Amino acid sequence: MGSEFGVLALSAASIGLVHTVTGPDHYLPFIVIGKARQWNLSKTLGITALCGLGHVLGSVLLGFLGIGLGLAVGRLNVVEGIRGDLAAWLLISFGLIYSVWGLRKALRQKTHSHAHTHADGTVHHHHHSHLTDHAHPHVSEKNASSITPWALFVIFILGPCEPLIPILMYPAAQSSVAGLVIITGIFSVVTILTMVTMVFLAERGFKMLPMKGLERYAHVLAGLAIMGSGLAIQFLGL
Q1: Whole-angstrom distance, CA of residue 91 vs CA of residue 234
Q2: Among positive and negative, which fits the CA dihedral 225, 226, 232, 235?
Q3: Which residues pair with 80 in a beta bridge?
Q4: What span, in angstroms and rounded, lies between the C-alpha atoms of 238 and 197?
Q5: In which domain, by residue range, is 142 found?
Q6: How many CB atoms within 10 Å of residue 121?
C-alpha cells in the first residue's frame, strides 16, 4: 500500500464528507422529525447513526457482491440508480403522509368554544379541543412515534451511496482485499459521523430560534421538509 492507496484513502474521507453535507436527505429528516416528536438529543443522534449505518451497509454489501462475482461496475450503477429512485419516492410519500397526519393533528388541537346558558340567565363559554376532549388520542401518537424511526431506517437502507462503488470500492479492490475493507470503512465512518455531526449542529441551532407559535404545526413542517428532500433528490439530483 503506497502513495496511491493514501490518495484513495484521502479521497474516501473527502467524498464521504462532501457526499453527506451536500445531500440534505442525509440529515434533514432526522432534524425535523426529532424536533417535531420532541426526541431528546441522544435519541435523535442514535437513530441518525443507525439509519446512517443502514445507508452505507446497503451499498457496501452490493459492492462486495458485485466485486466477488466479477460484475461490471455499469451493472451495479444501474441497480444503484433504481435504489436511488425508490428511496426518493419513498421519502416523498413518507413526507406527504406525515404532513397530512400532522395537519389533521394540528386542526384537532385548535380550540373552540360552546356557549352554555343557565336557568338564571348566566352565559359562559366552554373552551376545548377535539384532541384533548375525545377518546385516547395518545394511542395513535404512540403508534406514529414507534413506526417513524423504522420507516426512516428502511428508506435509508434502500438509499444508495452513489460514489462508493464506482469511485472507491472498485479501484480499492485492485490493490487487495484488505485495502478494499479499509477504504470502505473510511468512507462509511466519515459518512455516519458527518450525518450525526450535522444533526447535532442543527439541534443546537434550533434552540436559538423562536419556535413558539409554530409548535402546533411542527409535524406538518417536518413532513413537508422530508417530502422536499425526496423531491430534491429525484428532480434536482442532490
Answers
A1: 10
A2: negative
A3: none
A4: 19
A5: 3-109+134-236
A6: 6
